[in-house]
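User: Before I run my own analysis I want an independent prediction to cross-check against. Here's the chain; please return only the structure tokens and, at the end, one sentence I can use as a sanity check.
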Amino acid sequence: MRTSVTLQVLLFAAGGAALAQPSGTFTAAATGWTGGSGSTATLLEDGRVLVVAGPNAGLYDPKTGTFSATAGSRTYSSTFQSATLLPDGRVLFAGGLLDLTYPTSQSDIFDPSTGAFTLPEHYGSMVFAKTCPSAVLLNNGKVLIAGGSQFLEPFGEASAEVYDPVSQTFTVAGPYASFPSPILDPMHSGDGWCPTALMRRDGKVAILWMGDGVGAASEVFDPATNTFAALQTPLFQGLPQVSDVPLASGLALFAGADSSVSPPSTYAGLYDPNSGLVSLTGPLIELTTDTSGVLLPDGTVLIAGNGGEIFDPARGAFTEIGNVFWGGGTAAVLLDGTVLLGDVGGYSIYHPNKLIPAPTLFALSGSGNAQGAIWNSSTGQVASAQNPVGAGDVLSMYTTSLIEGGVVPPQVSVGGLLANVLFFGDAPGYPGYFQVNFQLPSGVTAGSAAPVRLIYFGRSSNATTIAVH
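Assistant: Structure tokens:
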């Protein structure tokens, strides 16, 4: 159902950021924390970035431009682990290369409110050890963890698993439908064992296996049945996958360099999660095997390694944009639209041509930015203390900064639980604004101030509240 409220009654709840650097350029980020190889960078709800590599965990604060150590240390030391922002704002880390030696099944959770790492309450490790797994937050709030070098396991044994934040347990999923040729060397964690895992519009997850030393394969995971089914086999075999980036179109861009041929060449392809096929695009301009890639808020993609370049999905082409202070490693788009990227050598900040801040949710005027302008689609009444809503009710709200024409829906967190998004698109009568309809999940704690956030390609909106009976 598409309904609307008058935007004049809403209060815009986020301030703009000034552009302090020339657009389309890189600047060096403040030093003080050098991280390490195989790191992850996760944007937290408050705008800080949690960077983790081995036993080291650092927090980058864009307000001060500095790194600081977390209040607590990690419970285990790993690189090439997965990192997943949970609906309640915590971050789940799973697997990785333990002490640069062996795959591990260990996991831990970072809580931004305490700055500490803790083990999941029940069974603090995965069922199987995995180096370089891919993790996807499912629409039911659980996390699929797939792939990863696991040379200690018997071939063909089921290894994907699902983490449940409510029970804090890992359970086996699978088995895989199209398992690729195995790699026995755990140090090959950057190759085909690091699959591209992509959420589809139907809530299923498509997985592309394609890398140096493995054959290409594609399959889809269905959370409803906990099973995998094979998709069509991609035509390209054995290319070293360097960067894979989900696009607003629902496809995924992968790009890299093949140094096994003479002369070395670059390539880029688009993965279709519905068919399982890959089509060539690009190619990448710079010959580099160490890149980071990230979707920018305008729908283009930043690829940064030895140099920087932008991929425009509309043209299917790359454009060089200049020198990078430190590229490769990992990247995270900040709340103001700039990008933090880097790894062992250091970190850079990329300043796009146009700064697009994170999505904003609206609050009622006079509510102190608290009471969300979120209304019950059936009654048209705001979900306030006078008109609380319950599990299953369909709610509507307006937001900003979604990608025009994008088909990948945002995620909505209510009281730390993931809601079912039923519709998103242009707000009728209000160009530049977007409407999101979602269903209130069961299990939200009753009260007058259940927090609501919208998450879009890793960036969280501000929080507003609704009343739940």
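Sanity check: The first strand starts at residue 10 and ends at 12.
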